[in-house]
Amino acid sequence: MRRPITRHRVSQFVLWLGLAFALSGCFKVRTTIDIKPDGSGTLGMAVGITRQVKELLASQSEGKDPMQSITENLSEQLGVSNPQDMNVKRWTEGEYEWVQGDVDFRDLNDLNDRVSRSDYFESFSVTRQSDIFRDRFVLNGRLKPLKDSAIANPGDTLSPGDTPALSNADPAAFIEIQAAVRLPGNVVQTNGVRNSGSSEILWTASSDQTVTMQATSESWNWLNIGIAGSAVGVGILAIAGVALFLTGTSRSKSRKSPATAHVTADRLSSVLSSSSDSKVVVKTSPQPQVHTQADATSPVRSTPPISPAAPPDIMATIGARSLLQDVNHFLLRDAGTIREAPGEVLLEWPVLPGAAEMHTIHIRLLSQQQIMVNGEIFPTTHEGVKTGIVNCLRKIKR
Asked: Could you count the other beta carbons within 10 Å of the beta carbon of residue 85?
């Protein structure tokens, strides 16, 4: 359970800091957020004060180490009930003495809850938008103006009759508050300052204005890429083995009897032609038919009628075509072909370069609530389409 910040503890701590800053020195706060691709990570907060400030705080705290008081305040800011649950480290850098507390967060909801409780943020949120092969992390936050912070304006936390330590001085003269965030993958958009020596994005609080924090990054979903890549790779190797075996058999028979070479070739062609409807091809649903004048005399497979239960723009809303385009571009290197008909879209690609046999992923709209992906039913949502496509790729692997 997180321990609530008591009025007495905050008032006393802020009053000491306010008095110290009014007379000497500077106060620095740096919040660091490191997010991993799975949404977990580390949240840290560091406070640095000059030696003059530390000596003044020590004289006001009846011999108690000021850095210990700051450590206790850090635990409150990070939402930790016991300072011993934090990873605490101290160091000296120039004229500043620093103390930092780090805590791990389980997921983005845990992070957002902890940061939103901090005294230095008006709001904070990081969300993840998952695609088949890419994850997008979107950061939106607001840093409070320095003049609104409890450190710069301790009168708000003092009891009646107490005198605020700081008058109308510019808080930027003695306070520096920064937020540094590291997002997974590549940052594609931000209004922060990028640290050239690392992948951090930095924002610095202003004296009298709220600072808006915005950033977006994209990272590859290597788990799905690995599953899909291995599925297609195994399928291609298996078909290649069958093709090589049949080709070798055909050549062997043609050497034995030239008179039977033509017959053997005909049989091989028949086997390859019939195999498109058997084990070689992974299909569990009919393809949409695209008819031309040249096909008028050719036999055409019958396709069950599509239920006109929902408008065709739902397919665009759930991103069916865009997901198949990702598969075709990133996984198949644009070797496939995408075909569309009202209420359905299909991706097909050859099991081997130049081969007639095809793998297919066929998405068909059944209603506003259901879609069919290669014969299996899924919800009519972006996640439903994505799950269906991944299942198809896994079946190809098997």
From this structure: 12
Are 129 and 261 within one domain?
A: no
Which of 220, 252, 278 terminates a domain? The answer is 220
DSSP assignment letter at 312: T
Neighbours of 252 (CB within 10 A): 10
Residues 121, 250, single domain; the answer is no
Summarised one tens digit per residue, pLDDT across range 136-159 is 999 999 999 988 876 555 444 444
CA atoms within 13 A on the CB side of 203: 27
Q: Is 246 helix (H, G, I), strand (E, B) or coil?
A: helix
Q: How many separate domains does the chain show? A: 2
Distance CA 391, CA 363 (A): 12
- Per-residue pLDDT of 189-232, as tens digits, reads 999 999 876 789 999 999 899 999 999 998 877 555 565 555 55
The answer on 366 and 228 residing in a single domain is: yes
From 390, 349, 388, select the one nearest 366 (Cα to Cα).
388
Sheet holding 96-105, edge to edge: 87-93, 96-105, 41-50, 27-35, 175-182, 201-204, 193-194
Regarding pTM above 0.70, the answer is no
Q: How far is CA 200 from CA 34, 35, 79, 102, in A?
A: 9, 11, 23, 17
Of the three residues 171, 199, 220, the one that is the final residue of a domain is 220
Give me the domain span that covers residue 87: 7-220
